[in-house]
Design a protein that fits this description.
This protein is mainly alpha-helical and 520 residues long. It has one domain. The protein is 85% helix and 0% strand. It is built from 23 helices and no strands. The protein is globular and about 65 Å long.
């Protein structure tokens, strides 16, 4: 249950951040819609986020946390912090060098990253400028990831989970200021980098309160740092495969006007349950499984993985069914106003439906990867990730070309991302099963089918409810929003009611959620 409590803490803060993120995206959609300026900003914003996911939160986190947690358990906090100082010095130099190189070569990079922008010199020039402004965000995110890894290893999850709210608050502030400046894309880009600095400062203060006061030594490739870099190599793609798939989709999407923006809006919606459940579980499981392996052995680690899978299914199945049942009401309620039209809502709903089909695979991958990373195995996830990326690239090109002339190229890209996610997830589960590290216990085998039955009941209620209040969902903005709120409430009541009656969730599970504040 410690995993469930910690996940509730991370998920609760993540929920608040994502709700602010929705407010931010609603404002962006109102001002920019899906036009050329929006496409240029979203590509520029995606670029540092890709490297952040690959380097900071992906490969680095997957490699650093097990090494830091092992030193913490074996030699104490001082030895673990010394290792973190050495890693921080090397990480800072590497991220600064990458940032300067990327900013200098951005005119050439943009031809590779957004080939469709080459036909519009103004859009291409704007994308290059915005990408140069946003790229320093990567440096701050690398430092933030290091401090978050230390805090999470100490079971202090709150600050790291709360830090992303800074990005949304600063960007919302930028959107408020933008009308007076008269240049929304540039104001948003500067707010991204400013928010990165703010997130780093939040984690730095939290670390000091936890008794962590690292210095910045001269960068040296000490044996622990070399071990970290060795693990980061294959982990670079393994932990960031989903981001690579999304970025491949964005690159190809620039060949169809508006497609990059449509994919961004759909991505933002399904990323909410992914962050709440998948990323929250991944953040908690990695140090938890490392500690269990160090102190209690394989049996305890397998039990922890089973609980992670159970909680993932409990919360992901209803989210998947909901996103596939009412994608159009969701898109209309969240984004349809100002420059964002009803046609954009239909397109976003189609992309959201396709992304949602892969949501369980996205979440399960986040749960399965820590089982390898905790054992300092980054090679196996790398092979699975490479297979998924190859499938995504092939399917994305094929489906995009088949559907572009009909105006649905974005749907092919979203479908390719979802299908490749299932390939990666299936390979990870198969490898764990062969090694005897994934052995489903009786509790997992009996609860997941009941959770699925409850999710199907919820989906039927959502479909019926949407028919009853169709007038609200297709009417003015306030009616659409209230109608969606009613559907969310209905779905939550039906799902958890059915789950309770079917035995898919127990009173003890809900009790752990009520105690999350005390744990934090």
């Amino acid at each position: 249950m410690a995993i469930f409590r910690a996940m509730a803490t991370v998920g609760g803060w993540t929920a608040g951040s994502r709700l602010l993120g929705f407010l931010r995206d609603i404002l962006i959609a109102r001002v920019l819609g899906t036009g050329p300026s929006a496409d240029a900003f979203f590509v520029a914003f995606r670029l540092p986020n890709l490297f952040r996911a690959l380097l900071a939160e992906g490969a680095f986190n997957a490699s650093f946390v097990p090494l830091f947690a092992r030193r913490l358990e074996a030699a104490g906090l001082a030895a673990a912090v010394l290792f973190a100082e050495q890693a921080m010095a090397v990480l800072l130099v590497a991220s600064l060098a990458l940032t300067l190189l990327a900013m200098a070569s951005m005119p050439w990079l943009m031809h590779l990253l957004a080939p469709g922008f080459g036909d519009d010199p103004a859009q291409y020039a704007l994308a290059v400028e915005l990408a140069r402004v946003t790229f320093p965000y990567l440096v701050f995110m690398c430092l933030t990831a290091l401090f978050a890894g230390m805090l999470n290893s100490l079971r202090r999850y709150t600050a790291a989970a709360a830090a992303p709210t800074v990005l949304n608050v600063v960007m919302i502030g930028g959107l408020v200021v933008a009308p007076w400046v008269g240049d929304t894309p540039r104001v948003l880009s500067w707010s991204v980098t400013l928010a990165g600095l703010g997130q780093f400062l939040v984690l730095l203060l939290a670390a000091r309160r936890a008794g962590i006061r690292p210095r910045l030594p001269r960068p040296r490739l000490t044996p622990p740092v070399r071990r970290l870099l060795t693990l980061m190599g294959p982990g670079l793609i393994a932990a960031g495969a989903m981001q690579l798939n999304l970025f491949v989709g964005t690159m190809i999407a620039t060949l169809q006007e508006g497609a990059a923006s449509i994919l961004y809006y759909a991505d933002r919606v399904y990323q909410l349950p992914l962050a709440l459940f998948g990323i929250a579980l991944s953040v908690v499981l990695l140090p938890e499984l490392t500690r269990r392996l160090q102190s209690d052995g394989e049996v305890a680690a397998r039990e922890g993985l089973n609980r992670g899978l159970e909680y993932a299914a409990l919360l992901t199945l209803p989210a998947t069914v909901a996103l596939m049942t009412i994608p159009l009401p969701i898109a209309r309620a969240l984004f349809e106003r100002g420059a964002y039209t009803s046609e954009d809502s239909v397109a976003t709903a189609l992309a959201l439906f396709a992304y949602a089909a892969g949501l369980p695979a996205f979440v399960l991958t986040k749960v399965l990867q820590p089982a390898f990373f905790a054992r300092e195995d980054t090679v196996t996830p790398l092979k699975a990730a490479l297979t998924g990326v190859a499938c995504n690239l092939g399917l994305a090109i094929l489906l995009f070309l088949l559907l572009r002339d009909r105006g649905y190229g974005f749907l092919g890209l979203a479908s390719a991302t979802a299908l490749s996610a299932w390939v990666t997830c299936g390979l990870l589960a198969w490898k764990l099963r062969r090694r005897g590290l994934l052995v489903a216990d009786t509790r997992l085998l009996t609860r997941v089918p009941r959770q699925l039955a409850a999710a199907i009941a919820m989906g039927l209620s959502l479909w019926g409810g949407a028919q009853l209040i169709a007038g609200w969902l297709e009417g003015p903005s306030l009616g659409r929003f209230l109608g969606l709120a009613l559907l969310v409430l209905l779905g939550g009541v039906v799902y958890f009611g059915a789950a309770w009656l079917l035995g898919a969730v127990k009173r003890a599970d809900l009790g752990q959620l009520r105690r999350r504040k005390r744990t934090a």
